[in-house]
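go over my protein:
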Amino acid sequence: MKNHRPDWGSYFMEIARIVSMRSTCLRRNVGAVIVKDKRILATGYNGAPSGLKHCLEVSCLREKLKIAPGERHELCRGLHAEQNAIIQAAYHGVSINGADLYCTHLPCSICIKMLINAGIREVYYEEGYPDELSLSLIEESDIVLKRIDRAKTAKPSARRTSPASKGRTKRKTTLRNT
């Protein structure tokens, strides 16, 4: 009998995809899962703060103002998936220091700053995000960035630089058995 169990990275990324289905953003559905020692500590998706109307109900201010993705993050009523995952962990008193993040998209610069200060070690993501500052902050930090190719989710590729730099990495990282 053939084993069809996904590897750990694929498993957590699929959960991040499912979490993203709760998103109420009109532009992009993002899901995040914070994991430590193969255990899920917190999840988050992008949407308005608890108790407030969602963009689905009141429309998107960023669309109205024609703000490009990756710019003017403060002009959004929603929180990002990574922010909501960090907040969920804090709200429930769960330390995420030394944990990893699985996210459907590359975190923006605001989220990367939060992830650095929260002690996140590695960030796994599938889709890019147009925020050069984010990539610059990652380069300067101790966070290891790994892009997971959805078609090949069994083997994540290590990255320390822009997703556009095809194959060039600043620092080699060894992939641990996720």
Q: What stands out?
A: Strands lie at 31-36, 39-45, 100-105, 122-127, 144-147, 157-159. The helical segments are 8-20, 55-58, 61-64, 81-91, 109-118, 132-140.
